[in-house]
From TrEMBL:
InterPro entries: Thiolase, Thiolase-like, Thiolase_C, Thiolase_CS, Thiolase_N
Residues annotated as domain Thiolase N-terminal: 5-265
Family: Belongs to the thiolase-like superfamily. Thiolase family.
Keyword Acyltransferase applies: yes
Pfam families per UniProt: Thiolase_C, Thiolase_N
Name of the protein this chain belongs to: Thiolase family protein
Tree of life domain: Bacteria
Xref: Gene3D superfamilies: 3.40.47.10
Keywords on record: Acyltransferase, Transferase
The keyword Chaperone is assigned to this record: no
Domain Thiolase C-terminal per the UniProt entry, residue ranges: 273-393
Upper classification of the organism: Bacteria, Bacillati, Actinomycetota, Actinomycetes, Micromonosporales
Length: 400
């Protein structure tokens, strides 16, 4: 059976997901299209060789409704014989896209495939597809009468693991500090591709994340009010000391990311040196009320499949949907704090829903290469009480 390798991984800068954000003036299709073009150009790969484009996207309405990977491919000027498909596994959509690409290569269905994700939350706001409809249905609600929004679930997780407001805020401040240090030291330079955004009669180039706040501190974050302490939830959970705020939660963001996945044979034939491979992957379902605890069983499952221990892992990315998620994870897997989200996470870099899984993997690959690490683990909580987990192995000792 052929092996599957990750040849390269890139991402856009992260833009604030509001009308004034740095990427808000760019259609999401064109945002992803520029990332795809940069990925192939810097590797010298003929676009005609690509057999599929697998793209994570959560808000598949409006400007993201027409199979965004297909439209992005066409907007980049690439040949029209290449198809695309959209994956929606909530926050893990981009990570699942990578897994599907790898599985396709391992099955012999692909030799060259692109996996990634896109989300323009400034242009397609979160929840746009619901139109005030009930997505759960009466039978699911009857089975799980305690279903709550994700923010309330984050509060329940914080309460279950005894996480104080100060700990959540301290974690959030550290996320910004780590991301700021990485940016200042050039650690993100290899993974970010500049994006051209229309600006009046011309265009401007966005080359850096605008979401990082280097001055964040426990003191400044303490001024923010809890975001989810509203009726009817305060009445339903009188025991909860409400502490989840906009400051210790992920940011609404615009962004895109893409990875080039190939069979080992095709990469060798093209003279390309792979950067990483997938060791094991797993997906699980967990309590749909707590919702955000899926990374715990997902981590156990993927470590078991890989035949590795948590101590074998050099760096771990646990998506910072809310600070309570990685803190609860670390309570169950007490690794050294420096190994968990070493370059900051979604609190500092933002969470463009469908793109985040590919963005985390891109950042993880770069971090491991630049620090001499071998194994990395990535896991993400997902709405509905699900989670993906993936272990990668670095194949290069240092960046090209």
């Amino acid at each position: 059976m052929t092996g599957a390798v990750i040849v390269d991984a890139v991402r856009s800068p992260m833009g604030k997901g509001k009308a004034s954000g740095s990427l808000a003036g760019l259609h999401p299709v064109d945002l992803l299209g520029q990332v795809l073009a940069a990925l192939l150009e810097r590797n010298g790969v003929d676009p005609a060789l690509v057999e599929d484009v697998i793209v994570g996207c959560v808000g598949q309405v409006g400007e993201q409704s027409a199979t965004p990977g297909r439209q992005a491919w066409l907007s980049a000027g690439f040949p029209d014989h290449v198809p695309s498909v959209t994956v929606e596994r909530k926050c893990g959509s981009g990570q699942q896209a990578v897994d599907f690409a790898v599985w396709g290569v391992l099955a012999g269905a692909y030799d060259v495939v692109i996996a990634g994700g896109v989300e323009s939350m400034s242009r397609v706001p979160m929840g746009s597809g619901r139109m005030d409809a009930d997505p759960f249905g009466p039978r699911t609600r009857a089975r799980y009468p305690g279903l709550v929004p994700q923010g309330v679930a984050a509060e329940l997780v914080a309460a279950k693991w005894g996480l104080t407001r100060e700990r959540l805020d301290a974690y959030a401040a550290e996320s910004h500090a780590r991301a700021a240090a990485a940016r200042a030291g050039g650690a993100f330079d290899r993974e970010i591709v500049p994006i051209r955004v229309p600006d009046g009669a011309g265009e401007r180039v966005v080359g850096a994340d605008e979401t990082i706040r280097p001055g964040s501190s426990v003191q400044t974050l303490a001024n923010l009010s809890p975001a989810f302490a509203t009726d009817p939830y305060t009445r339903r959970f009188p025991e909860v000391d409400w502490k989840v705020t906009a400051g210790n939660s992920s940011q609404i963001t615009d962004g895109a990311s893409a990875l080039l996945v190939m069979s080992e044979e095709r990469a060798s034939a093209l003279g390309l040196r792979p950067r990483a491979r997938i060791v094991a992957s797993a997906v699980v379902g967990d309590d749909p009320t707590l919702m955000l605890t899926g990374p715990l069983p997902a981590t156990r499952k993927v470590l078991d499949r890989a035949g590795l221990r948590i101590d074998d892992i050099d760096a771990i990315e646990v998506n910072e949907a809310f600070a309570s998620v990685p803190l609860a994870w670390r309570a169950e897997f007490p690794v050294d704090a420096g190994r968990l989200n070493p370059r900051g996470g979604a609190i500092a870099l933002g969470h463009p829903l469908g793109a985040s899984g590919a963005r985390l993997m891109t950042t993880l690959i770069n971090h491991l290469e630049q620090t001499g690490g071998r194994y990395g683990l990535q896991t993400m909580c997902e709405a509905g009480g699900m989670a993906n987990a993936t272990i990668i192995e670095i194949l290069q000792e240092s960046p090209r």
